[in-house]
Amino acid sequence: xxxxxxxxxxxxxxxxxxxxxxxxxxxxxxxxxxxxxxxxxxxxxxxxxxxxxxxxxxxxxxxxxxxxxxxxxxxxxxxxxxxxxxxxxxxxxxxxxxxxxxxxxxxxxxxxxxxxxxxxxxxxxxxxxxxxxxxxxxxxxxxxxxxxxxxxxxxxxxxxxxxxxxxxxxxxxxxxxxxxxxxxxxxxxxxxxxxxxxxxxxxxxxxxxxxxxxxxxxxxxxxxxxxxxxxxxxxxxxxxxxxxxxxxxxxxxxxxxxxxxxxxxxxxxxxxxxxxxxxxxxxxxxxxxxxx
Amino acid sequence: xxxxxxxxxxxxxxxxxxxxxxxxxxxxxxxxxxxxxxxxxxxxxxxxxxxxxxxxxxxxxxxxxxxxxxxxxxxxxxxxxxxxxxxxxxxxxxxxxxxxxxxxxxxxxxxxxxxxxxxxxxxxxxxxxxxxxxxxxxxxxxxxxxxxxxxxxxxxxxxxxxxxxxxxxxxxxxxxxxxxxxxxxxxxxxxxxxxxxxxxxxxxxxxxxxxxxxxxxxxxxxxxxx
Lengths: 292, 226
Known about the structure:
The structure holds 2 protein chains of 2 kinds.
Chain A: E1 3-9, H1 18-28, E2 36-42, E3 50-55, H2 61-71, E4 75-80, E5 83-88, H3 92-100, E6 106-111, E7 114-120, H4 123-129, E8 139-145, E9 167-174, H5 177-186, H6 196-208, H7 213-223, E10 226-234, E11 237-242, E12 251-254, E13 258-262, E14 278-280, E15 288-290
Antiparallel strand pairs in A: 1-8, 1-13, 2-7, 2-8, 3-5, 3-6, 4-5, 9-10, 10-11, 11-15, 12-13, 12-14
Helix pairs in contact in A: 5-6, 6-7
Chain B: E1 2-4, H1 10-18, E2 28-32, E3 49-53, E4 68-71, E5 87-90, E6 106-109, E7 122-128, E8 142-147, E9 163-166, E10 177-180, H2 184-196, E11 207-211
Parallel strand pairs in B: 1-2, 2-3, 3-4, 4-5, 5-6, 6-7, 7-8, 8-9
Antiparallel strand pairs in B: 9-11, 10-11
């Protein structure tokens, strides 16, 4: 099943309450995905600082801090439950190999705007644990997972991020992910799990090298075989795509201040002024995008 | 009587509507703050009027018998699913599988209905004032589907004996579905259905689609024997 949610703010009015809005959406989608939850939240990047979202798993924060200070000099660490946002001016090319060398941790995303938090457990517990209500931002994407084709782990949770400031959430399942994973690996993509959505995220990252997000998703219609409603995020916005059979639901509410998308309307019922919003279902096989 | 879903649990609202006090003869109900909840007004059996003020979730008015239900908003998947009789009027848009498997009654949708509208319908009359999505009237067995707008791909795929009337464009017809002649009896039926939905579009503007009867073994000439 799974539940997916997203908000893109068209004006600055709700930037401070973005986390609270998304939090309620995720909680109301708990029935669609009680196994794990996660969210990606974007802020405007003011400087050259990169943010690396890391899940420490079993590793203690103190131990991680001690070790990382030896390897990377100019860093700031923001602890949030079992996740850490590592901030550094160092480029991904230098930092990622260092983090990959660390045993037991998972790099769940990186970029100048994005922060990702995801963990197993009920969505209501996960949003509380990371204090999502107090996050601000420009746009955000979230997911509640009912695990089907791979295990209930942090690595099996959404959103998946396989490129700078990119992320993907998915309701559905892909049938050609093993083949596609092999092809992408040959082109240099790396994967941390057996999950089908991670392959779709890798596919999008690979394709974005030559195309914009809209073109990439359009191409995905012929390359990704299976059932899906996707929300794909970038530093400036997000895009939505449903497969052509459209078994997986999605509904969009648009007002002058925001665009919200979710698997079911009930996730949006609490949003400000939603009763005056333009409410519609994204049509199958058509890419809808906001921002760049 | 106003039933506020912000104050009452969904189950108790449905129980109230399913077990009305016949002696009091109160037959007007309003459900407020539906907030996208599922299965609102499912399983009603009495001849009552219910207005739902706002957007609802899945399977609203499912299995309805006799009740007259108005939704002042959009509906999720499977509105009036398996309805037996009565009337459901949606003032907004409907999600997929509207009127699925319904045996009787009337479903009116003022806006658009998405994919699989009237899937496996078994006698219901569905009037959509907007357009319908792909695979509408899939395996539809009986009843009428009226579409005042356009129809998506594979309309009436594997159709049995439902009559489909479309005013606008049909993107494509499904297997065993073909355009049929519009006889006087069809025009009269269509006129009656449009009137029921408060539409004054002329039946002449519609085309009728039905089964080519090549896919299923049932032979219409033997209908009296079944």
